[in-house]
Design a protein that fits this description.
CATH architecture of the largest domain in chain A: Alpha-Beta Barrel
Number of strands of chain A: 18
Structural class of chain B: alpha/beta
Order of helices and strands of chain B: HHHEHEHEHEHEHEEHEHHHEHH
Oligomer: heterodimer
Radius of gyration of chain B: 20 Å
CATH class of the largest domain in chain A: Alpha Beta
CATH topology of the largest domain in chain A: TIM Barrel
Largest interface: A-B, 20 and 25 residues
Number of helices of chain A: 15
Bound molecules: zinc ion
Number of domains of chain B: 2
Strand content of chain A: 15-25%
CATH topology of the largest domain in chain B: Rossmann fold
Strand order of the largest sheet of chain B: 7-6-5-8-9
Number of strands of chain B: 9
Helix content of chain A: 25-40%
Low-confidence stretches of chain A: 438-442
Distance between the termini of chain A: 14 Å
CATH superfamily of the largest domain in chain A: Metal-dependent hydrolases
Largest sheet of chain A: 8 strands, mixed
């Protein structure tokens, strides 16, 4: 069998090479072999016509909850990585707040074997900062890093004790790893369900004040100033947070940040009554916050888009709003939402948009730079930026369905995701319809 | 609106005795809004009620009240219906009021003792409702600590059961709102431009919210007074005036609604102490002099005597409407049960 594939006429968008140009890509035995303006197909070669499509490096998500180990009713490595591939991702980093949490070598080995067994794309583990996520004792950072842990985070919970955070930032230097902060003051946010303000007031729901995030970021920035340790702020949601991070970066502090697709797309005004598909932490904020996040992504204050993909069962999400768990799934909808809000809506260039999904998140965690280069594994995504479709969670790949975008029309669709040259995801229907107009052959 | 049973309503005039089928008479069923109630399946909130629906319900409540006073009950209008009361939070008075209302309409009433049922063992509220529906219950009257829990039930079983919200978290207590409005309208038939003060813990009050939506509908000016720690953020955007002091709120008020304050507010650090609360917000005869001479006081009950208002004021027949509220509660709940459960079948 000829294991070679020729992708013709696609618009290659590769931030690692600063390339945005139409070219052909030859893939052989899992690797990119050649990129040239015009390549002739050989006999028996699979040829994909990429006319009108974007060809980008496979996406990287540095914040997902694949729920392995112990929460298979919500998601596992198999379903989660398939959902990721359907979203154009070839690498996702999975959070450690599982049951039990990933806080020691034994449990990490179990997770690594599950990844080995079930992952459709690259899945990299995060381990907890503290044992049992209890916020007291540090995990064996060096040992766990040696086994493949790419970052440390108690995500789901903040490391509230700043003395512990300080030690973690200092010690993480030996392991050469980043700490990912879940910035939340748990006293200020206690009991809250939605952003504090008119929506909360009018629905009779307890509010989460903006100060619970911004105050945590302000405190943690001072610990970074003290230690010069690498700290990444996950799921930043407020204008005040963006401003704090902007100032910290200007002062040369080693902080980075990400924002989720839902926080750049929705606001607290979009909350649909008591629909728990709109319940996430941090909560949806105001229009001004949303605008500040987009500004932060454009000027580089916020480094990356990360999904915070958080699957929950229908049973859990059926609970009354205040009792239902926080979180929504997001892997399959991240790209179209960002495309609409950042590029079509806010004028961000195609290269910058793709960078937010590839090179920039990878840089946050010091992962190898994704790119389309000869001699590199063919981790690629083919995107149709104009295809309009309706997202239906029932047809999705995640085991869970908790998305506020269910039933919504989105523009921009992943057509094919290649992981190491193999098809990790294929939108059969879209390919068929393109085939009918004889665009695809081979 | 005038809630008096007028003489020009022949069927209902005092000269012609009210009869068992008064509610189902053509005269009543021609009341504007009956068609809207026929189309409605649940009563979840006062937010989504139109003025016509509210006036219609209160008109029926006026007749129910008269029927009760004349001891013409039970009416045989809900004979085939089963109404279940599920109270996840204790409230003897609201539950009793709903129970009495349903019995006076001839319904069979099922009181679910939540403490002893499987709910305590982790059964969800949807499971519980499902079981009751399978038993043939037609309406569920639910009280639950979570905002939106009645909505959740109505979404899950929209066509299968009527849901009456008897209080969900801090969100809504629609029958309380309706009975408070009824009580005020009995005293003052036109609330347009009237000043109504609501005093106390607004944040955690479903009564305050249900009252605000209704009073706005009837054109009243709403003034809220309470500690800033118990005032919901941005509530002034609902078109109400917010005060941290009692005095400007009750000055020239036509009605003052005092809300119940829970002792746990002190434990949670939301107020320093009940004694300080009393100093600032407790209603008494002296403070009430700031209000209109005709002003009346309401309280959803149960009253913490001496905390929200003085004993003396609570029991003052001239100023306090608290007992009237309780009596009106049964009438309003009868009206709502009738409109949701029986008006669909009654001849029109
Ligand atoms: Zn988090």
């Amino acid at each position: 069998m000829n294991r070679s594939l020729l992708i013709k006429n696609g618009l290659i968008i590769d931030p690692s090479e600063d390339r945005e140009s139409q070219a052909d890509i030859l893939v052989k035995d899992g690797d990119v072999v050649m990129i040239a303006p015009h390549l002739e197909p050989e006999d028996g070669q699979t040829v994909l016509d990429g006319s009108g499509l974007w060809v980008a490096p496979g996406f990287v998500d540095i914040h997902t909850h694949l729920r392995e180990i112990g929460q298979a009713d919500r998601e596992d490595i198999g379903t989660g990585s398939l959902a990721a591939a359907a979203g154009g991702y070839t690498c996702v980093v999975t959070m450690a707040n599982t049951e039990p949490p990933i806080d020691n070598a034994a449990i990490l080995s179990v997770l690594l074997s599950k990844i080995e067994e079930k992952a459709h794309i690259e899945v990299l583990p995060i381990a907890c900062v503290t044992k049992g996520m209890e916020g007291n004792e540090l995990v064996n950072m060096v040992e766990l890093s040696g086994m493949g842990v790419v970052a440390f985070s108690d995500d789901g919970l903040p490391v509230s004790n700043l003395a512990v955070l300080r030690r973690a930032l200092e010690y993480a230097k030996v392991a050469d790893r980043v700490i990912i902060s879940h910035p939340e003051d748990r006293d200020l946010s206690a009991g809250g369900a939605v952003h504090e303000g008119l929506t909360a007031t009018s629905l009779g729901l307890p509010g989460i004040p903006g100060a619970s995030e911004a105050a945590a970021i302000a405190r943690e920035i001072e610990v970074v100033r003290q230690t010069n340790g690498r700290l990444h702020f996950g799921h930043v949601s407020l204008a005040a947070s963006v401003e704090l991070i902007r100032t910290a970066k200007a002062a040369g502090l080693p902080v980075t940040a990400d924002a989720t697709p839902h926080h750049i797309c929705l606001t607290v005004d979009d909350i649909n009554g008591f629909d728990t598909a709109y319940k996430m932490n941090p909560p949806l904020r105001t229009q001004a916050d949303r605008a500040a996040l987009i500004e932060g992504l454009k000027d580089g204050t916020i480094d990356a888009i990360a999904t915070d993909h958080a699957p929950h069962t229908a049973l859990d999400k059926q609970k009354p709003f205040d009792q239902a768990p926080f979180g929504i799934i997001g892997l399959e909808t991240a790209f179209p939402i960002a495309l609409e809000r950042l590029t079509n809506g806010a004028g961000l260039s195609k290269l910058s948009l793709i960078a937010l999904f590839t090179t920039k998140p990878a840089a946050v965690l010091d992962l190898p730079q994704p790119g389309i280069r000869a001699g590199q594994p063919a981790n690629l995504v083919l995107l149709d930026p104009a295809h309009s479709w309706i997202y239906d969670t029932a047809k999705g790949f995640s085991r869970s369905r908790n998305s506020p975008f269910n039933g919504q029309r989105l523009t921009g669709k992943v057509l094919l995701t290649f992981y190491r040259g193999n098809i990790a995801y294929k939108d059969e229907e879209l390919i068929q319809s393109r085939h009918k107009s004889s665009v695809l052959k081979g | 609106m005038n809630l008096q049973i007028r003489d020009d309503m022949p069927d209902l005039s005092m000269s012609t005795p009210l009869s068992l089928d008064a509610l189902s008479s053509n005269l009543m069923l021609d009341t504007p809004g009956v068609d809207l109630w026929r189309a409605r399946r649940h009563l979840l909130d006062t937010k989504d009620l139109t003025k016509v629906e509210v006036e219609c319900a209160l008109r029926f409540a006026a007749v129910c009240k008269k029927l009760c006073q004349l001891e013409i009950a039970p009416l045989p209008v809900l004979n085939s219906k089963v109404v279940a009361n599920i109270f996840y939070e204790n409230s003897t008075r609201t539950r009793s009021s709903f129970e009495l209302a349903a019995r006076r309409l001839g319904a069979t009433v099922l009181n679910l003792d939540v403490q002893s049922s499987s709910v305590a063992k982790g059964e969800t509220l949807l499971d519980t409702a499902q079981t009751l529906i399978a038993m043939g219950v037609h309406a569920i009257v639910q009280r639950h600590a979570s905002s939106g829990s009645a909505h959740r039930l109505s979404e899950a079983f929209h066509d299968k059961v009527h849901v009456l919200n008897a209080g969900d978290g801090w969100n809504a207590h629609p029958t309380q709102g309706l009975l408070d409005l009824f009580t005020m309208l009995e005293v003052m038939p036109d609330l347009c431009g009237a000043k109504v003060a609501i005093v106390g813990d607004i944040s955690h009050s479903r009564v305050a919210r249900s009252n605000i939506w209704l009073l706005k509908l009837f054109g009243a000016h709403i003034h809220l007074a309470g500690p800033p720690t118990l005032m919901p953020p941005e509530i002034s955007k609902l078109g109400v005036t917010v005060h941290n002091q009692l005095e400007p709120a009750i000055e020239d008020a036509d009605f003052v609604i005092a809300l119940r304050i829970q002792l746990e507010r002190q434990k949670k650090g939301e107020i320093p102490s009940l004694s300080e609360y009393k100093k600032l917000y407790r209603l008494d005869h002296h403070r009430l002099k700031l209000a209109k001479p005709t002003a009346r006081v309401l309280h959803p009950g149960p009253v913490n005597r001496g905390v929200e208002l003085t004993d003396h004021l609570a029991d003052d027949p001239e100023l306090s409407l608290i007992r009237t509220q309780v009596a009106n509660g049964v009438a309003v709940r009868m009206a709502v049960l009738y409109l949701l459960l029986a008006s669909k079948e009654a001849k029109s």
